[in-house]
């Protein structure tokens, strides 16, 4: 097969789709290369560089392409460079047809000027670009090029071949404008950032492996609010980064793909040592945990200054710092997200919206944290060594240009959790649901396996907890126990009893019909239950222990029969909040055996000092 035909097939694999959407959510509108383009010039690298065609100047081991066209390049270039220095309106296509390029003092491929440069990885070929540890620049006033593959113009990479980039000086692949990857198997080892597109990065397909000492991917234009974004539409992406996995100066959007990120050495390498002053001296409305910094390097997995938007994809994260972080908003509309975090699982300084998707936070300090948290749908599981879902006013200082943990939330009375649907399962050593302001629940299912120590509670709020629908089961210690507020239109009960872990708690009506059968994975002293089936004027019984033949999901039993339980109490619901039993001793740290604050009028505890 001729080189001309091979090139035509290679270019046919290039697809840069112009969607016409806003660049924050989609991508830039770039003109596609025609599906059938003949090769204008072939360049064969070696001890002697052979050029067949026009538009090329060879000087020693430097190949300069100075006009538009399609160039097929093959062979080995030792200590040399492919430079594109064409006109402002020139489109240049570089077909890498099995190249090995090394340059000990500069970039292996350098695009000094063009309108657009397209790098096509020929089908079935392996290509490699390596730079050196020390660059020699043309004059002392510049520090560019500074990546193994560096472009001052828009850069597009496609094709079904492979490309290995060894960046020993700085970044792996850099574009000072837009950078798009449509296909290819790309492997990058970098002493700094893996992929950097100043104006934007768009990944639509391909198999990308990044091992970087700096950020995995970064778009850093901070001068134009329409730029500085990262968009991932598909592909398989595996990032191991010393610093942030993906960083966007404006918006990071994920609509598809399989993405794996290990940032900062993973959760065991967290830069924060959390020291909590909680319990009976905990100050309401202000976070008093102190984050001692061992290292000021930002090691988040996905980070953006304006918005992190996830519409789909499969995302697996193991991060030393926050796994998903925005200085403003996080929006999750779909996808599957698995998180292991050394700090927050999902953090936004302003708002987190969960509209759909499957989210599993296997490990975190605080699971989900923002000033306002809106959960409208989705399946969420959170495990946290401190608070599970925390609505606090302000920011935590771990922003784009700030070091992690430099500030703390400290805005009394602010912070709202809105639960309008979905399923939330929380396992928290601190507070389960914690709002410096109020909690509002209209629908959905919330299950909290809260703290065993009495310095925290399964529910913690300063304003009100108004529940009008859905199912709430919140178990934990009794020392700081709170129930939903009297302003609720749906009734609730708070069961105070020392209950061993894995012991069933069952509530049934006067006819023996099940209201709830639940089992906590922890030793608890308070179980709050709110359900539409708890009605004023009706009589109910509470049992502990026993067995159920029903199926269990996240601690809730369904169907089946219950037997051999011990009746704790029979009661009649006379108000919005009904307290049952009392704790006479048993589990917990300081304050164990103290009746829960749910016994106070309205089911609310007195304000803590």
TrEMBL record:
This protein's name: Carbohydrate-binding domain-containing protein
Pfam families found in the cross-reference section: Cthe_2159
Region (Disordered): 588-609
Ranges of biased composition (kind: Gly residues): 588-601
InterPro entries tied to this protein: Cthe_2159, TonB_box_CS
Lineage per the UniProt record: unclassified sequences, metagenomes, ecological metagenomes
């Amino acid at each position: 097969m001729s080189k001309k035909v091979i090139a035509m097939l290679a270019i046919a694999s290039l697809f840069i789709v112009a969607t016409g959407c806003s660049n924050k959510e989609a991508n830039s509108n770039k003109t596609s290369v025609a599906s059938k383009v003949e090769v204008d010039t072939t360049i064969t690298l070696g001890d002697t560089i052979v050029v067949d065609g026009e538009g090329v100047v060879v000087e020693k081991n430097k190949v300069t392409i100075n006009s538009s066209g399609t160039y097929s390049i093959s062979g080995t270039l030792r200590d040399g460079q492919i430079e594109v220095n064409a006109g402002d309106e020139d489109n240049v296509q570089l077909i890498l047809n099995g190249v090995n390029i090394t340059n000990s003092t500069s970039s292996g491929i350098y695009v000094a000027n063009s309108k657009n440069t397209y790098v096509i990885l020929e089908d079935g070929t392996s290509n490699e670009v390596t730079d050196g540890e020390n660059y020699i620049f043309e004059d002392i006033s510049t520090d560019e090029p500074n990546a193994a593959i560096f472009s001052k113009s828009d850069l597009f990479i496609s094709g079904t071949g492979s490309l290995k980039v060894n960046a020993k000086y700085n970044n792996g692949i850099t574009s000072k404008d837009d950078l798009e990857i449509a296909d290819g198997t790309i492997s990058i080892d970098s002493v700094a950032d893996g992929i950097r597109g100043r104006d934007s990065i768009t990944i639509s397909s391909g198999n990308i492996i990044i091992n970087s000492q700096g950020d995995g991917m970064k778009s850093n234009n901070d001068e134009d609010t329409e730029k500085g974004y990262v968009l991932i539409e598909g592909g398989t992406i595996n990032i191991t980064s010393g610093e942030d996995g993906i960083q966007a100066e404006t918006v990071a959007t994920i609509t598809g793909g399989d993405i794996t990120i290990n940032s900062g050495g993973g959760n065991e390498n967290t830069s924060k040592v959390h020291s909590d002053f909680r319990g009976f001296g905990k100050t309401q409305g202000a976070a008093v945990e102190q984050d001692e910094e061992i290292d000021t390097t930002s090691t988040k997995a996905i980070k953006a200054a304006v918005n992190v938007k996830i519409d789909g994809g499969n995302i697996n994260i193991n991060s030393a710092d926050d796994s998903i972080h925005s200085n403003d908003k996080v929006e999750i509309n779909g996808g599957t997200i698995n998180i292991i975090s050394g700090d927050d699982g999902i953090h936004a300084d302003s708002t987190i919206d969960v509209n759909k998707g499957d989210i599993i936070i296997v490990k975190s300090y605080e699971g989900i944290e923002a000033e306002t948290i809106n959960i409208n749908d989705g399946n969420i599981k959170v495990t946290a060594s401190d608070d599970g879902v925390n609505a606090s006013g302000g920011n935590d200082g771990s922003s784009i240009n700030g070091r992690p943990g430099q500030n703390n939330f400290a805005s009394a009375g602010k912070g709202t959790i809105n639960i309008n649907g979905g399923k939330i399962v929380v396992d928290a050593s601190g507070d389960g649901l914690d709002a410096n302001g109020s909690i509002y629940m209209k629908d959905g299912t919330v299950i909290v396996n809260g703290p065993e120590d009495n310095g925290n509670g399964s529910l913690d709020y300063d304003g009100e907890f108004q529940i009008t629908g859905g199912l709430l089961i919140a178990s934990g210690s009794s020392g700081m126990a709170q129930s939903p507020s009297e302003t609720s239109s749906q009734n609730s009960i708070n069961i105070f009893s020392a209950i061993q872990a894995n012991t069933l708690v069952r509530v049934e009506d006067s006819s023996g019909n099940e209201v709830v059968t639940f089992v906590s994975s922890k030793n608890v002293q308070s179980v709050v239950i709110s359900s539409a089936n708890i009605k004023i004027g009706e009589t109910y019984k509470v049992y502990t222990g026993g067995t159920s033949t029903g199926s269990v999901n996240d601690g809730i039993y369904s169907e089946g029969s219950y037997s051999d339980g011990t009746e704790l109490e029979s009661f009649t619901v006379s108000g919005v909040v009904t307290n049952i039993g009392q704790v006479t001793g048993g589990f917990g740290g300081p304050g164990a055996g103290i009746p829960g604050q749910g016994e106070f009028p309205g089911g609310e505890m007195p304000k803590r000092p």
